[in-house]
Amino acid sequence: MNISLRQLKAFLGVAESANFTKTAQHLHLSQAGLSATIRELESQLNTRLFERTTRAVVLTEAGRVFLPTAALIARELSDAALRLRDMERQDIATLRVGFTPLMASAIVPDTLLRFAATHPQVEVEVVDGSPVEIQQAVENGGLDAAFGAFFAKVSGLRREAIIPSHLAAVYASDRTAHAADTGSGDMPWQALNDQPLICLTPESPVQSLTEEALFRHKLNIARRTTVQHLETAIAMAEKGFGIAIIPSFAQSACLRYAVHCRPLVPAVSFDFYVITRAGAVPSPTLTAFVTTFEQVVAELPKPSAG
After folding, report:
1. Beta strands at 195-200 and 221-227: parallel, antiparallel or unpaired
2. Residues 242, 195: contact at Cβ < 8 Å?
3. Pairwise CA distance, residues 285 & 301, whole Å
4. Which DSSP helix (H) or strand (E) runs through 50?
5. Which of 54, 82, 186, 247 is the most exposed place for a label (fewest CB within 10 A)?
6. Angstrom distance (rounded) from CA 96 to CA 124
7. If you average pLDDT over residues 129-139, what whole number do you get?
8. Does pTM top 0.70 for this prediction?
């Protein structure tokens, strides 16, 4: 059995309010996240804790028996955490941040080096994962912040736009993308017509923007190769499997490959975000880290345009 304080707080909140929506707002969670947390707890206990109807949420008999124990454990754990926090050295801080994989490999190392030079007292823990994974970690309190393509607003999370970006085409240095392609400067979307593409998975926010643009310009795709990560798409483009569509912030990764990278026009512009829990007050440490991250991105070298 592996019951967490997060699960206990979710259970106690619903038991008190008899309302999932109100509890989710109070705990700064999405309603889906709260429901998943309650299901996890019920699975741990191997029993149902609530009866859910269209009109009300009420404790089951097992829920009523578990309630005083849950309240006691949650109170004791919270008190212990406060005592331990007071015992920590005041000159040491820990920052837990999440990134999508290409950001983690291409941008984070330089960010950490620069940040360590100005904030040597801060220990930074980095987690890389998909946008869904690191967003859930922020919701659950496992991360202080996450950086990525979080285009949809989510209840319980605060978004701050930090990196303006646009879509760009990446293709092998030894190939011409299309007869309409001039070989330098911007690339028109029409140059992709009847060309093979290297696509990201459907759940990728960047791929969603790409599909909208392909549909809007009525383009036919000769062949699709689907991959999970942006850097894989760039590597596949280098080997001639097709043209990859990437966000412009990822251009620095192209320098490791024999590829050209060109902005697509008309431009598809968007922002990358840092997300935090809506109820958390941004610490000066996190604010300084975000500023350092933005500075590193602004100074990234640009690859050849072809």
Report:
1. parallel
2. yes
3. 27
4. strand 50-52
5. 54
6. 6
7. 90
8. no
